[in-house]
Specification:
Blueprint: H1 12-42, H2 48-60, H3 73-76, H4 79-87, E1 90-94, E2 104-109, H5 116-122, H6 129-132, E3 137-142, H7 152-158, E4 161-163, H8 166-173, E5 180-185, H9 188-191, E6 201-202, H10 209-217, E7 220-227, E8 234-235, H11 243-255, E9 262-263, E10 281-285, H12 299-320, E11 333-334
Parallel strand pairs: 1-10, 2-5, 2-7, 3-4, 3-5, 6-11
Antiparallel strand pairs: 7-10, 8-9
Helix pairs in contact: 1-2, 1-4
């Protein structure tokens, strides 16, 4: 394979964009493991007291992730997120107002490999969420596993990430006065295994937990489609029925996390690596679907609202696909 190296002379802003994305990829893939090793290693050095004191703090602070976390505007508005936004670039597109007196469940599709669009739009201030939707606070759900990693849990909480379990979401959705937008990558980790360039399928056909959650709290549903999310990485072909997909599905069922074999470019060359390609991501926020509160919805009521949501997502995709290079004959499919 011929390696295509990056030019030696590049504008500083492009170098800074790559650096910002590099730290994000590192944080997503490696930082939790580094923090665990650091926590354990310190116990066997003269700095053991740091881990002991943190352990005490960790015990006291154990429930904070499931109670809204600890989002810090300062961290969310650091200049490095602007560089990350401009790397792709990422753009947040508004199609309707969201009343800040209400609470919302925002369904994000598709998951992609590393949910780059969801993080940039809803965990940072780089794309102007606060200006587009004044009065709303966004929280992105993440696998609870990562909130068991020392130090790392505090970092991701500061960015507005909370565990993807019912209790954590319910804590925000039952707050009176509204103003909370709980963002759920509905397809979750399994959907990442289908995140191939040119794929327009979402894992939604049997996903009704978020629908039930919305009805139980009277939270309005907001469909979101992120055009370009599947384009920023390549993935080894793994169609259902192959030995690779069987292994990936088994590991996902055991570990709770998916392991897509993805690749893109490197830092100083464009041929191979885990840095995403510079391809635009346009995240389109659809119109809210009003939901009446019903603490014990029937199966038929869940099915009806689930169908309304799928229809709204399909309509959103069809109305905007022409703006973002999607072929006219491409349609959204549900798996």
């Amino acid at each position: 394979m011929k390696v295509e190296f990056a030019p030696v002379v590049l504008p500083l802003n492009r170098r800074l964009q790559t650096a910002a994305v590099l730290q994000w990829v590192f944080s997503f893939l490696c930082l939790a493991q580094v923090c665990i090793v650091l926590f354990i290693s310190l116990l066997f050095t003269r700095l053991w007291l740091i881990s002991v004191l943190y352990g005490v703090w960790w015990f006291i602070d154990w429930d904070t992730p499931s109670k809204g976390g600890r989002k810090l505007p300062f961290l969310c508005n650091l200049p490095m997120w602007d560089y990350m936004r401009d790397y792709f670039p990422v753009k947040l597109v508004k199609t309707a107002d969201l009343d800040p007196r209400e609470n919302y469940i925002v369904g994000f599709h598709p998951h992609g490999i590393l949910v780059a669009g969801a993080f940039t739009n809803f965990c940072t201030g780089a794309t102007g969420f606060k200006k587009l939707f004044p009065g709303l606070r966004s929280y992105l759900l993440m696998l609870p596993l990562w909130f068991r990693a020392p130090f790392f849990r505090d970092y991701i909480m500061c960015a507005g990430l909370i565990p993807s379990d019912k209790n954590s979401a319910s804590y925000l959705l039952r707050r009176k006065g509204g103003g909370n937008a709980v963002v759920i990558a509905v397809g979750g980790a399994p959907e990442a295994l289908d995140a191939h360039p040119g794929a327009y399928c979402v894992l939604l056909a049997n996903k009704k937990g978020f629908i039930k959650l919305a009805m139980e709290h009277g939270a309005h549903l907001v469909p979101v489609y992120s055009f370009g999310e599947n384009e920023v990485f390549d993935q080894v072909q793994n169609p259902k029925g192959t030995w690779l997909r069987w292994i990936q599905d088994r590991l996902q069922s055991i570990m709770g996390i998916s392991l897509p074999l993805f690749h893109a470019r490197g830092v100083f060359q464009y041929s191979i690596g885990v840095i995403p390609y510079r391809k635009p991501i346009n995240t389109v926020v659809g119109k809210p679907i009003r939901v009446e509160k019903k603490e014990k919805p029937s199966s038929d009521e869940l099915d009806d609202l689930h169908q309304v949501y799928m229809d709204a997502l399909s309509k959103l995709f069809e109305e905007h696909k022409g703006n973002y290079g999607v072929p006219e004959d491409a349609h959204l499919s549900f798996i």
